[in-house]
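RECORD TYPE: inverse folding
INPUT: structure tokens
STRUCTURE:
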């Protein structure tokens, strides 16, 4: 495995781990659907500007256009469902985090269903990650049946994300990561625009102007550096492995809030469960990226 793949894998994991930092900071300041819309819109806009100046850029081929469109719609639904789960689980965000990160397990089932041979390292790595996630979240996880609807939305958001990775694997066989990322961000933004209109969300609310630099950060770091790298890596790693990248997010998020930005996030907890579970999760991820695509 090339050292560049390792580097990109962990860079993307670090990039997407900054997303909850901004989301937490903007909590109750900007509507979540608005945050997701501007995040996707900024990401698409930057890539479109870059692609127009790149003479070697080629758009998505006609055979992959439908799969790309579906991927974009599902990515938009992924964000809408996740934020919907958060709204239904205001005091149980852990539930949304746990059920919202099941994408690699759904992706694994889909790959098995379509007959793809799965490296044993993937099974072992996923088992280690599952143990790590269980340790990290078990203390705060809520099994209350009243939370069923919110849990269901979070599970559906994971399923959407898993299908995005499966489709991106197919599209990337004949298309560049740039062309796919550009298109999928645009379609996701359009999907979120429709959702915002249906829900009556004001996408130009005062908070959007007040926190424009935070939204710009979201559009560039976790979106361009994070998600775009996902779709680059899926050509070299199995979709199940790439879908595991966000699983390192809770641990890295805790490390950043506790050691780097404690003054801005004074209420964030860091205990032995998070440390042990987080380290186990990173070990599992390291095992996963050693598996080659078949």
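DESIGNED SEQUENCE:
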């Amino acid at each position: 495995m090339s050292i560049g793949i390792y580097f990109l894998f962990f860079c993307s994991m670090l990039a997407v781990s900054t997303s909850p930092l901004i989301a937490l900071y903007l909590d109750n300041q900007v509507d979540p659907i608005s945050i997701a819309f501007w995040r996707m819109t900024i990401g698409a806009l930057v890539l479109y500007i870059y692609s127009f100046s790149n003479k070697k850029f080629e758009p998505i081929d006609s055979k992959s256009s439908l799969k790309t469109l579906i991927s974009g719609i599902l990515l938009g639904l992924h964000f809408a469902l996740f934020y919907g789960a958060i709204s239904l689980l205001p005091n149980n965000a852990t539930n949304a985090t746990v059920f919202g990160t099941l994408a690699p397990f759904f992706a694994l089932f889909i790959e098995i269903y379509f007959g793809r041979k799965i490296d044993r390292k993937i099974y072992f790595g996923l088992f280690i990650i599952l143990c790590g996630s269980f340790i990290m979240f078990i203390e705060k996880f809520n099994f209350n049946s009243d939370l069923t609807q919110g849990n269901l939305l979070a599970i559906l958001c994971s399923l959407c994300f898993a299908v995005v990775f499966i489709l991106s694997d197919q599209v990337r066989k004949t298309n560049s990561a740039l062309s796919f990322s550009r298109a999928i961000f645009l379609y996701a933004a359009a999907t979120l625009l429709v959702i915002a209109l249906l829900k009556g969300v004001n996408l130009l609310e005062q908070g959007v102007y007040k926190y424009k630099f935070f939204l710009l950060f979201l559009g560039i770091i976790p979106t361009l550096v994070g998600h775009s790298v996902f779709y680059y890596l899926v050509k070299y790693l199995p979709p199940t492995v790439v879908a595991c990248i966000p699983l390192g997010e809770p641990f890295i998020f805790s490390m950043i809030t506790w050691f780097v930005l404690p003054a801005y996030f004074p209420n964030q907890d860091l205990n032995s469960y998070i440390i042990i579970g987080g380290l186990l999760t990173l070990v599992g991820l390291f095992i996963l990226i050693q598996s080659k695509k078949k």
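NOTES: Residues 103 and 158 are 4 Å apart (CA to CA).
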